[in-house]
Amino acid sequence: MPMNINTLIIDDTVTYRKIASEVAASFSDVTVVGTASSGRLALKKMEQRPVDLVFCDVHMPEMDGVETLSQIKKRFPQTQVVMMSGISSRSAEITIRALEMGAIDFVKKPTDSSVQQNIIHLTKDFATVLRLVKIRLSTRGIAKEAPRPKPEPEATPKPKKAKITVSTPRVFGICAIGVSTGGPEALNKLIPELPRNLAVPIVLVQHMPAHFTQSLAERLNQKSTLAVREARDGDPLKPGTVYVAPGGRHMIVRNSESLPVIGINDQPPENSCRPSVDVLFRSVANVFGDLGILTIMLTGMGNDGVKGVRSMKRKGCFCITQSEASCVVYGMPRAVDEAGLSDVSLPLEQIVKEVKFRLNC
After folding, report:
1. What is the pLDDT of residues 290-337, one digit of tens each?
2. What are the catalytic residues?
3. Strand partners of residue 6
4. Considering just the CA atoms, what is the radius of gyration of the chain in Å?
5. CATH number, domain at 212?
6. Structural domain tally of the chain?
7. CA torsion angle 95 101 105 108 (round to 10)
8. Contact predicate 152/276, CB 8 Å
């Protein structure tokens, strides 16, 4: 029996509620159980029938998206919440706050002058979100599916790749982090816990579009003793500083007059991603391969980063992956784990301790 996702749309704009509802209903595994013009009305509707997924506007009168999310998390913890955001700096800031609080993802409100183009953009974004929601519903046993027949045993079990062993660096010159879905929440728990005396720079790719990574960096900077900034082309790499790849652009590290600096470019996406973790990690391998690399692969969909980790492993790298149980989506860490490239898989709350141990701080 196909999965059925009961969905609620919350937006204070009649036109957008209509468009979002029609787009959501166009998916065969989605049932739009209602719409609401405010957070308060949505909560009342959620008391009347089960809801698996909520698309929630960021800006609303009476109760904004963050407050609505907070109430949903408290009263309906099994419900998945996706924020619907504009591209203003204020909307981006609120969206990042919502992601830190546990919203699983966000979609940008389309701004094309053509209604049909807006529908096309929104349909593409909803499809991405629904893939994520289906993964979470199926793995957590929330989806209302009929029992499936027991599958026939495979004739030949799939071989598991042997763990790749290389000498572990004793000193490190850089820390490189890759993260995607669930990233703001994970980074909010990781980066502020790192000490001021961190002796290496951190370079970080969070899959995110333009306009949002600046808000992410600012939020992390406010909470951290480390300096956190959205990276700019030519920035020199300094210890105790976190460089966040700008949304929609690739970030690399390169040598400039024998000193490592940040490079930003608009080369084509890799793994359908820009910024791409693989792009960053390959450059880190080239520049820091002889200096020791510590890499951390956090929650995210897909397999972006696994090729980059392999490149770093050839040069001398210690790799930490986030454990399945603590991931919003165990995709990117899984790819690294299954390739035999992870040195240790840890729950999110234990990664900071491991980083401090490896970096002697």
Report:
1. 899 999 999 999 999 999 999 999 998 999 999 999 999 999 999 999
2. 180, 207, 304
3. 31
4. 21
5. 3.40.50.180
6. 2
7. -10
8. no
